[in-house]
Amino acid sequence: MSGHPHASNEVQSDGQLLDATDRQIIVATQAGLPLVAEPYAVLARQLGLETGEVLQRVAAMQARGIIRRIAAVPNHYALGYTANGMSVWNVCDDRIAEFGRQVGALDYVSHCYQRPRHLPLWPYNLFAMVHGRSREDIVAKVAAIANLLGEHCRSHEVLYSKRILKKTGLRIRE
Amino acid sequence: MSRKQKPAAAASQATSPLAILDTPVTLTGLEKCLLNEYQRGFPLCASPFARIAEQQGVTEDEVIGTLESLQQRGLISRVGPVFAPQRAGASTLAALAVPAEDLTQVAEYISNFEAVNHNYEREHHYNLWFVVTAPDQAQVQRVLGRIEAETGLQVLDLPLERSFYIDLGFPLWC
């Protein structure tokens, strides 16, 4: 949930600069690796690098947190995880860090953020995106979160998604 | 997050149906295994598919062929690095309470902003939720201001204050 670099030397999340070669690797891999026996060798040839250097740079970017993980990325929607509920919670301010961490660590919660309240319209300060195959599935998971928060949560709601109107991923331009 | 290393699911090639709303998707044991076990920790080495083949007791060709098939069917979006959202920029989660009769038109207006990269309709008084991303905070506020001026609706501006997001993917079958 944030911006994407436009210039070639933007400060990254760890405060370090990403050099031009790192950026080329990002651009070349963000749509996915080629499904061939030696995908990094293919990349290396495209970029005029050695395979070892590509592997090393990818590992370094992962160590710096620029790459979060390397994955076969499932399309949850196509797999039937069509229900997604944005659960919002009014949690005591003095306990939110502790509870945020606990909720964020639940494996059915994909995103968990603290956001400001806008009283009186919007009393909720903790957001947790809950995924499931059905609404019943989400109701059960939300109940488990409510149970975890107990009396430290004054109220909560679940906002079910009805339509995805626009969804674009990370865009780094060449 | 409790992610247990499960033994190879590949051995059993039995098919099992997934509960899907419209189109039933049938997956083999190897497909499930590749979807579930490689949402992180996809091998970073010259021959990653051979490494997976070794881990799962199948051939490299089977791994590549299965991933190709999953990708062709849209069940995985890609195989490769997942990049962390960059903090070089500003963004916010915004919501609008749009009268039902105006929703389609307002939703389209919002989606047309290049600065909007997610736009969801949700079942709530606040029925339109979108993320505004721009190089800096002033530009985010300008977009919100334009949206308020154009729609005559007050935007709920909910910038991220703290993230409890631990992105490890999430288990698909449990």
Describe the structure.
- The complex is a heterodimer of chains A (174) and B (174).
- Chain A is α+β, with helices and mostly antiparallel strands and 174 residues long.
- Helix content of chain A is 32%, strand content 26%.
- Chain A folds into two domains: 1-73, Arc Repressor Mutant, subunit A (Orthogonal Bundle); 83-160, 2-Layer Sandwich (Alpha-Beta Plaits), CATH 3.30.70.920.
- Chain A has helices spanning 20-29, 39-47, 51-63, 96-104, 135-149, and strands at 67-74, 83-91, 109-114, 126-132, 153-167.
- In chain A, helix 2 (39-47) packs across helix 3.
- Chain B has two domains: 16-72, no CATH class; 90-158, 2-Layer Sandwich (Alpha-Beta Plaits).
- Chain B has helices spanning 29-37, 48-56, 60-72, 103-111, 137-151, and strands spanning 16-17, 26-27, 76-83, 90-96, 116-122, 128-134, 156-158, 162-163.
- In chain B, a hairpin with an 8-residue loop joins strand 1 and strand 2 (26-27).
- The longest helix of chain B has 15 residues, at 137-151.
- The two termini of chain B are 13 Å apart.
- Classes of the chains: A alpha+beta (174), B alpha+beta (174).
- At the A-B interface, helix 2, helix 3, strand 1, helix 4 and strand 3 of A face helix 2, helix 3, strand 3, strand 4 and helix 4 of B.
- Strand 1 of chain A pairs antiparallel with strand 3 (76-83) of chain B.
Write out key terms for the chains shown.
heterodimer; A: 174 residues; alpha+beta; Arc Repressor Mutant, subunit A; Alpha-Beta Plaits; 2 domains; four-stranded antiparallel β-sheet; 5 helices; elongated; disordered N terminus; disordered C terminus; B: 174 residues; two-stranded antiparallel ribbon; 8 strands; 22% strand
